[in-house]
Task: structure prediction
Amino acid sequence: MNPAMTRAEREEASAFGHAEAPPTATVGYGPHPDQVVDLFLPEARALPDFQAGSGSRPVPESRAGGGAPAARAAARVIADAAPPADGAAPTVPLVVLFHGGAWRAPYDRRHLSPLAAYLAGHGLAVASVEYRRGPLADGPAARAAGHGQPRAGRWPETFDDIAAALDALPALVRDLAAGPAAGGSSDPAAGRVRWADVDADRPVLVGHSAGGHAVLWAAARHRLPVGSRWRLPAPPALRGVVGLAAIADFGTARALGVCSHAVDQLLAPHHPPATPGPGPAEHAALLAHRLACTDPSALVPSGVPTTLVQGGADIDVPPAVAEAFVAAAARAGQRVRLVRVEGVGHFPPIDPATATARTVLAEITRLT
Result:
């Protein structure tokens, strides 16, 4: 790996440098090409020997400030909540993964497949969700609004897909269990996991960056305003939520311009170039409405056990975003577990070559 690279560049190169891991199955939850889920069973899956994607050895995680490499990143719990009550069902826990990428089209679920395989290698079933992001090809005006990058998100399709995927997933897993490719072995002594063994009715939601926002939002759909198309009548049946470098507080993320102002692009009204957009007052009212429906900090308390894993040196989604969500939850009476990993940035939580990924696995396992 190039020694001239910054710590953040090395971390990103490692996370994106792993070979794509093939899923056990891919299923659709809608007609659009992006409405698909990759599923990974933990059956007889050899755990890959994950190394740093751009070199022959793992990238060391550095201490804060980009100084000397640390042998192992220090994770410390900043805030905590009691673990969920005992009574686990006699099935294989399901982890539902949502990828990040600032809701922009070039970033899809494939870069999370090494993490999915890593989790499956530790006995967890994994569903990695794709969803509609911003348009892949923008005109000059849209790129200018996107600060030189593809526009972030589609309103309301991005949220439609997050909700639809989670609503459909239990039935999709049951269909696999009943179908000809039910998986596993008819010999119980073989110890292979079948689709029927997967507890799709009570998953753990795990998301990175924009995907971290997705899982926090999904856990709070029962808190949405009455009349919202995504509102649930009761809290979702979840073991818990783990946000990794999550865009957890829209107010702080907007103030910091996180991911080239991705939140503003996600929520902004879009209209054909030849037609006038809303006036200032109408735009402000529309933005306030959309924030009330989408900002995780506006939807607490969710009542769902929630953990945030945050790199202390993250320059993409700084720790202040996670801290603002924890503070908002506390004001609403919800305790959120915040695990801060010092000296690492945005990508180690999804890179199975890092010690941070082991912290992530431990936090997920804690909820199962």
